[in-house]
Design a protein that fits this description.
Length: 326
């Protein structure tokens, strides 16, 4: 008998030097006595912060323990053959009350060599943007290491970075190696490889509450950066009601947005993968077999690989990010 079912997890809250209050005021998540909340980790297999199941008979079980016991039943045969007992994706909400550091993440090869870890390719979906908000993704011209170092040493790195105005529902795909930062005033959903490796390049000379500047990783970043220029950094997609719309498809994950004002059934029988729902607007009842699970804005649901069909039942509509491997 299959003991698996769609899973909710306890949110992991993280205060940050740049964090704000939108996790509470927009997403309705109470982060208690923390002065702010810069990130929530909604689904994580990162060893230092493993998610714990919050619903049903498996409540209190960690994602790592469940994966170790259920293996391909939880994540799919092909996914398990590739990643083993390492859950491959990490889901976050990020609230930038101030600019994040300018940073870059290593790819799989470099991360394996230096940290015995996965690299970090990720995507951002903008949930809310204050007026005038922007972010940085990539370079605004062709750059090589020499020009990069010249601008860095002159304190003019931002002269060669691609800064873009941002609004709600914008999407950015950030393969490992792309220099980036989230600008202040943005609330973002992030889907990424399971990795917590960041090379911080510039941090605006900020100090923490002890008056200490955060560590930079200038040398480590040099071999991680993709110095190429690309024609577009923002992901172009057509907004459509009541039909799944693909946003990102890469070797690590595929993500679609479902913006529905009516109930819909989803058939995952052709997938050899788990499926993640991140509810970014509205609410629905997730129906599977004879069971039901209420899902609200800010919830993240892990649907095991063996779950073939579900129904998303709604009276007022919902918008979700639907992700899987493959």
């Amino acid at each position: 008998m299959n003991r698996l079912y769609p899973l909710k997890f306890k949110t992991i809250f993280k205060d940050k030097i740049w964090g704000g209050q939108k996790i509470k005021t927009v997403l309705g998540k109470d982060f208690g006595t923390l002065p702010n909340c810069g990130e929530t980790w909604e689904l994580s297999g990162v060893k230092s912060d493993v998610s714990v199941i919050a619903n049903g008979p498996l409540a209190g079980t960690s994602l790592a323990a469940l994966l170790a016991s259920e293996k391909e039943n939880l994540i799919g045969k092909s996914v398990y053959n590739r990643f083993g007992d390492e859950f491959p994706l990490l889901v976050k909400f990020i609230d930038a009350n101030e600019d994040l550091s300018i940073q870059v993440h290593p790819d799989d090869e470099l991360a394996k060599k230096r940290h015995n870890s996965f690299g970090k390719t990720e995507m951002w979906y903008v949930l809310q943007a204050d007026e005038g908000s922007s972010l940085i993704a990539g370079f605004n011209q062709k750059v090589d290491k020499a020009l990069y170092l010249e601008k860095f040493n002159e304190g003019k790195l931002q002269d060669i970075l691609n800064e873009e105005a941002v609004k709600a529902d914008d999407v950015f795909f950030l393969p490992a190696g792309r220099v980036h930062t989230i600008g202040k005033g943005l609330l973002i959903a992030e889907i990424q490889q399971t990795s917590d490796i960041t090379y911080r390049i510039y941090d605006f000379d900020r100090v923490d509450d002890q008056g200490i500047k955060r560590e930079l990783h200038v040398e480590e970043a040099l071999d991680a950066i993709d110095y190429n220029f690309y024609d577009a950094y923002k992901t172009s997609y057509k907004k459509e009601k009541n039909t799944p719309t693909q946003l990102v498809s890469c070797p690590y994950f595929t993500t679609q947005v479902l913006d529905f004002d009516t109930s819909v059934g989803r058939d995952y029988s052709a997938l050899d993968s788990f499926v993640i729902h991140v509810c970014i607007s509205g609410s629905y009842i997730l129906k599977y077999g004879m069971e039901e699970l209420p899902v609200n804005m800010g919830d993240c649901i892990l649907i095991p690989a063996g779950t073939q069909k579900v129904e998303l039942s709604t009276s007022h509509g919902f918008k979700i990010l639907e992700s899987f491997v493959g």
